[in-house]
Amino acid sequence: MPIIEPQQILVPKKVYIGDTAELRCTFNTANPEIKKLVSNGSVFLNTSTLTDGRDNQKDYEIKSVSLSPAGVDFYQFSISFVPWKTGELLFSPMEIEGSDLIIEFQPVQIVSLISTENAATTTLHDTAAPLLLPGTAYKLYGTLAAFILIIIISIRIILKRKNLLFYINQKRLLKKYKKNRKQTKRALYKLADEHAEPGVNSKSCAETIQKLLRKYLEVRFDYPFTHTVTSDIMTGWHKVTGGLCSDAKEEAFGEIAASFVRTDYIRYSKNGSFSSDELNELVEKLIKQIDILEKEEKEESHA
Questions:
Q1: Residue-wise pLDDT tens for the chain (303 aa)?
Q2: Contact between residue 12 and residue 111 where contact means Cβ atoms under 8 Å apart
Q3: What CA–CA distance (Å, rounded) separates 255 from 267?
């Protein structure tokens, strides 16, 4: 049987024991049975096929398993579950009912409620410096102080011009980011208003949303998102941030990446269209995620 290793996102990123989480897996296949299975939209699958006969119900409880179309030959497989242990959690491979495809999952991490970050540590005191001859210490400290003073003055002379240039460039960059955010939000609101008028095509709206988001992301993060396919959006984010952004921004970008999957489906499916008020809700959600991405890390830490 063909084995699929999908791209997966855990929502939220940090999951604790007893929390309800969702593992979203995106994959590509031309299997006709899969296409027929979701011909009428999302479907819920039998959760028992995930147990594989093993005693893994002690590790997690599966609430639901669903399969949704996400574009031309693209699908999203979602598992809603509640973990009952910390550490690495691995779901059993699942054969999608009615087809010969098997999905293999990557391990996910469940966070412990007990943090060891603030645990007390014990260190040994440094050994005492050797004794110096009388008067030697004053000469040594005086020479060292003069040397340090010369270094500080030299560094200030060198960096003064660079700091000024850096300050000016930072101001220009912040102004550019602010303008980029305002233009994107204004265009999204305008698109939602135009879609409410009769005769506006959902496919063209979905394409416009993707163009606006790709342009915004490329300007904001200096990465070629305008030439990045939907399946590599999250990969591009990880390359840009190096995994150093906050959990809130990680989840916000994950929601933006998910919107690409939905708009791809509307663009390329035969009868794809936005449901009633779906576009307005999507625009409001995207603007909220953009505001989270633009928020400074200091503001997030005090929140």
A1: 788 889 999 999 899 988 999 999 999 988 888 899 898 888 988 876 654 545 456 788 899 999 999 888 899 999 999 999 888 988 888 888 778 888 899 999 988 776 544 444 445 445 555 555 566 777 888 888 999 999 998 888 777 777 778 888 888 988 999 999 999 999 999 988 887 776 678 889 999 999 999 999 999 999 999 998 988 988 999 998 887 888 899 999 999 999 999 999 989 988 888 888 888 999 999 999 999 998 876 544 444
A2: no
A3: 19
Q: Select from 178, 207, 223 the least CA-distant residue to 272.
A: 207
Interstrand relation of 60-69 and 108-110 (parallel, antiparallel or unpaired): unpaired
The alpha carbon of residue 130 and the mean position of all alpha carbons in its chain are separated, in whole angstroms, by 54
C-alpha dist (Å) from residue 179 to 77, 174, 182, 294: 37, 9, 5, 12
3-state percent helix, strand, coil for the chain, nearest multiple of 5: 50, 15, 35
Token representation of residue 23: 């593992």
